[in-house]
Design goal:
mainly alpha
């Protein structure tokens, strides 16, 4: 990979809000992983739940979060410019 500073080539402008968008996606993935882990604890026999319907709700929330992560990932993939071979 060549050093663009040496050739004086201009840098490609980057949208300043990219960090916020990436942080939002990473945060959503972390929440989804955490809630999924909590929701599946009774199925692993690690704990016996006092309120089993709560874990059903956690599974629904985890599924919803994973759906949102998938939608955001799909939108990011669709917005990518085509790569030159």
């Amino acid at each position: 990979m060549e050093d663009r500073r040496a050739t004086g080539a201009p840098r490609q402008a980057q949208d300043p809000s990219w960090l916020a968008r990436e942080g939002e996606l990473v945060g959503m993935v972390l929440w989804a992983v955490g809630i999924t882990t909590l929701a599946w604890l009774p199925d692993t026999r690690v704990c016996s739940p006092r309120y089993p319907p709560m874990f059903v709700v956690l599974k629904l929330v985890a599924a919803w979060l994973w759906l949102l992560v998938g939608v955001q990932g799909w939108q990011r993939w669709a917005r990518r410019p085509p790569q030159d071979p």
